[in-house]
């Protein structure tokens, strides 16, 4: 990595810098002319110099040059203009010079900005590229939040400085020198005064700003440390809550913020002191010009036009000079930042870039043995984890690795998966060191899975297929406009040193998964999901999800048939009462009061409960039907019963799980509200109080809560109000509410609700599990199982996969490794979060049943249960970092050794 920022910029942008420097040089000509023109206007047409007679004229725009070897050449004779015409002509030339100088500035600044953005893009990409090539052990020493902050924020000024690195000193220095030279030409002593002040500013101000640089460096470091600390708090929030250390973290953050405040306050004080001195020096010069220049003009040693021109020229001198001083400060500041980035990212040894080169062609199978020779591993502290282990693992062989925690078995598996690098010894395949093999081979032909899981923010499917996305397999189809835009982006990517890989391409290697394309990918995925016992979890996610009818047409089209099949199946099994279907003319006792009243679903987030309650039509319906007073009275009784029954219970009591209308935290609130409303009528309550009480009745279900509050009369009244609601519903509300219809699919409802078209009876034990099992069978019978599974695979796993349980994450991690159909599978206690029975079942599925005959890969499994080693061809027993025993199950189980102790 280049140590000097200036050399880094010049190395990558020298051609562009030379071009813009040439443009800057060309811009100095009209810049100088714009200084001389005011003098000509004042002395000539305005004061009458050269226009002494009444009809006097002067030549305008006479263009002639004496060219060596050729002689005098006249290009344009010029125009003869009177005094007024000359004034207008010179003024128009002045205006043209102003426009030309502005256009030069516009072009230069735009070019600089584009150049800077390209360099920022380049350096960010290079830093991320280096992160991808860091040695594994380095990630244990750095905080991810600090790395992200440096790439996102700390390199930002470097992009802006790139355009200014060479152009600004040339442009600003050229402008300052041009203005200063013009002043000296007009009057030597005024020029010396300006030069003296400029010299003081150029020497004093940069020296004073050294303190600013030091404070800026401290501010940068403390801000980065704060970012890393906040990242630690987010990642360790469970540990903080579990150990009651939130106030310790508050104290730590307050201390860090105090330190940052102190640094920034000192920075502001020094910054504005420097600014004050700089502004003072800048304002002293005009005073001297007016005093001394005016004195010289009074003595006749300086004409008015020259004085005006000098003052006008000096007006343009402080600006470039100040910006030049600012540029020097920015140069030092970004060099300091770049030095910090250099120190953070200049890590040795980096993974060789050739190891990560793109490979689009299929990679051949690994047919040679995995040979471990004299392998030794250590942790960060230098403690030996594996000590001089040698072993050979053949293709198609299944090897069980057993041993107590800390025996070295886990570290040995990490070395096989290239998660750690050996201190000494080698791991080779066909004579080639494992660390020297391209990732296009190891990442496709060797799979590694452990208990540590990580998933990127996205769908479950994108994370499951992540191990198949090695290179773009097909080019996307673009229309003419999109193709031009992609071509422009590709050109810019090349100029910024970025690859031109198209993220919109299809990156999934379907053949590696055993599929021919996206059409039959699910058929290849499903055996893997079944093997790790996650299919039912994904099916449950699908049932709780809404369905995109544009994508999953088959599911939405068969919902009505599914409803009928479900009813027939329940009738055949004598389970008619397990689901109470929706009926527009009847009250559904298993649904809430709100669901019965609405008889449909809201299109969220466009419509919510609060928006519906506030809608004028809904409020009018309540008034006309009298439901306001009925549900208010019902809500009061619910509140009274809940407060009386549960106010003495602890917040974590299981009874609160049965309450859908109130939480443990709501009990005190409603207790106080009941006391306030005890002797007040419905009309006396405020709208907020009425809403709080009526809201309780909306979530009430008689068979579940059993307060005996729903009379036949009230249920009939709700059904009548429902009919009136849908009969006269306004268009704006009708577009946001989908009414239940037994003959069509409801897109805003979940798949479960669509198939049930009703509610499960709460009186039935295990009703939900039985319904799910029946639905799974129905999906299979109608050949819809894969379609439903694909809906579940669209579930968003959240940041780091945290919307999934630990059990689901470990299953998914294992499935992702299996889907690659590698030649070597290395499983390092991958299912530690599962109970032993499920671990055993999944292990048996993978070792015995998953792969077809003749395609059995080599499986190396660090087992938690030594008894499962019976399924493997060979057993490696680790103890205290060494290979204690090796052999097959019958040999080691009969031997009175350590393995027999693990079995007992």
Automatic annotation (TrEMBL):
Its main location: membrane. The chain crosses the membrane at residues 15-33, 87-108, 176-205, 280-298. Residues 370-902 form the ABC transporter domain. It is a multi-pass membrane protein. This is ABC transporter related. It holds the Pfam family ABC_membrane. Keywords: Membrane, Plasmid, Transmembrane, Transmembrane helix. It is found in: Cell membrane. InterPro entries: ABC1_TM_dom, ABC1_TM_sf, ABC_transporter-like_ATP-bd, P-loop_NTPase, Type_1_exporter. One of its GO terms (cellular component) is plasma membrane.
